[in-house]
Amino acid sequence: MPFTRRTLVGAGATALAATGLPRFAIGQADNRPSITIAVQKIANSNTLDVLREQSNVGERVFYTSLWEPLISKDWLGKLAPRPGLATEWKRIDDQTVELKLRQGVKFHNGAEMTAEDVVFSFGRERMFGNSEAKNRTTLQAFERIPTPRPGKELPPEIIAVARRSWPDLLRVEAVDRYTVRFFNATPDVTLEGRLARYGSDIMSRKGWEDAASYLDWARQPVTTGPYKVVEFKPDNMLVLEAHDEYWGGRPPLKRIRFVEVPEVPSRIAGLLSGQYQFACDIPPDQIAQIEKNAAFEVQGGTILNHRLTVFDKNHRQLQNPLVRRAFTHAIDRQAIVDSLWAGRTVVPKGLQWDYYGDMFHADWSVPEYNPKLAQDLLKQAGYKGDPIPYRLLNNYYTNQNATAQILVEMWRSVGLNVQIETKENWTQIMERGEARAIRDWSNSAPFSDPVSSIVNQHGPNGQQQQIGEWTNAEMNQLCEFLETSTDRAKRKQAFRRMLEICEREDPAYTVLHQNATFTAKPKSLKWQASPAFAMDFRPGNYV
After folding, report:
1. What are the residue ranges in the chain where pLDDT is below 70?
2. Predicted pLDDT of residue 5
3. Residue 294 resides in a domain
């Protein structure tokens, strides 16, 4: 969505005006409410590091509340770009973006955010560690930064995410105290999107340096958000407290307490009894029951995330693409949407979203439901009914178990012998070996370009290839072209060819349906859900 310089500066000035709000006098009673939110899970990594916790549950719990990027989003609208920690930005050329930082922003430790913190947030010690191979660039500018001291070594998944998010980042320079420039090694039309994506968030350099270890920092990161961490018990609860020096104004809540309540009935019962003010991940079939009580309502809908089944082409039964194609044609996706989601979501046009704008292929579709074709493909492949494992967690996703059971029956009806294997965590889901075949997954679009989804998850630096499940030489070449070309027409052609490869010819995954999320709350609480997993409790969205 295009913005003029006047629009950006004006929006930034509006937010800056909030910093002039009067402070409460010392000793004055704090009458702001505190709330408790029941969630299925707080964090898979048991940290609050936005680069390590690249998950749906992580986005819900601490995005907008704890972490903030330079370029934000219209969280209560259509997720279009908005000034965040930067008030304006401009292109210097195809490889360079300059941003003006918001002045007077305070970290949770009281220090002012400056260009030094931005440079550090994208540097070697924070993002790329001691790794020598850094994709297509050497990131030579980061070599001047000292290697992390003992105890501050980065977990490998952080480096992997950094590479996916910023494959060609050359360096970040401080022009002055409140101006930074991002230099890419190659042309990139998506630099602004990368700056707005989940993971490109700003941290306090002093907060990092003051922490005794990586884990100490990652469980209480010092950031700029409207709330700060006061207590974190992994697999149990997270307590955030208002950051009253927040640049956007005084937060409306005194405290936010997230508690893990894995069972849906327990979340609903706690909401109705008043134990919780919000209950997340409500299945569609429970919405009407909750709203029978006139005091409660359920908000939500579709979000920029698709549910997938992902293939490991190394498995002996999946090496032949005909077998994987049979999987894709055996699924009646609309039946899943109708039976489990009460029509509250949709079957999308493959791994894309219409907010891609001119990159969206409106005439594309998921593989047709055609059981006869699936049977013919299995016959051509010579599949004899050998078992194929299907790994998933226990209702990490809404309706996950029910979806898996329906899929297994659909696959079985065409001759595929699929066996569900429920795992305890994502490490077990991803674990290599002969037993890894298909798994349950989702894919998000953090910004409005295919690079953010199909390349980020399935390209040469994407998670699927990083863990050795799938690769395709032509797809990898197209990914590099999509990331470096400035010719939009040719980029769109490349994207279509990538869809053909990944969804039809040599399936890496198959899209099931667009994801949706629903949150229940009392009607008396004036709060608006975002079209995302993130829950926004900033000033202006809680009364």
Report:
1. 1-28, 130-150
2. 35
3. no
CB burial readout 494-518, b (16+ within 10 A) else e:
bbbbbbebbbbebbbbbbbbbbbbb
Report d(CA 210, CA 213) in Å as an integer: 9
The pTM assigned to this predicted structure is 0.89
**Same domain, yes or no, for 236 and 309?**
no
Three-state SS for 74-123 is CCCCCCCEEECCEEEEEEEECCEEEEEECCCCECCCCCECCHHHHHHHCC
**Which of 125, 132, 103 has the alpha carbon at shortest distance from 115?**
103
Number of Cβ within 10 Å of residue 242's Cβ equals 20
Strand 296-311 and strand 438-444: the pairing is antiparallel
Interval 456-476: pLDDT, tens = 999 999 989 999 999 999 999
Its domain, for residue 443, covers 303-516
What backbone phi and psi angles, to 5 degrees, belong to 392?
-160, 160
- Whole-number pLDDT of residue 117: 98
Q: 458 φ, ψ to 5°?
A: -120, 0
Provide the CATH number for the domain around residue 311: 3.10.105.10
Q: Are 35 and 169 in contact (CB under 8 A)?
A: no
* Helices and strands (H and E) in the chain: how many: 18, 16
Number of residues assigned to the chain = 543
Neighbouring residues of 500: CB distance < 8 A, sequence distance ≥ 6: none
| Residue 145 maps to a domain | yes
130-172: pLDDT as tens digits: 554 344 443 333 333 445 556 788 999 899 999 999 999 999 9
Per the structure block, which two tokens stand in for 71?
């370029």
45-79 residue pLDDT tens: 999 999 999 999 999 998 899 999 999 999 999 89
* Torsions phi, psi for 202 (to 5 deg): -100, 135
> Degrees (nearest 5) of the Cα angle 450, 455, 458?
130
Residue 434 CB coordination number (10 Å): 10
Q: State the DSSP code for 466.
A: H
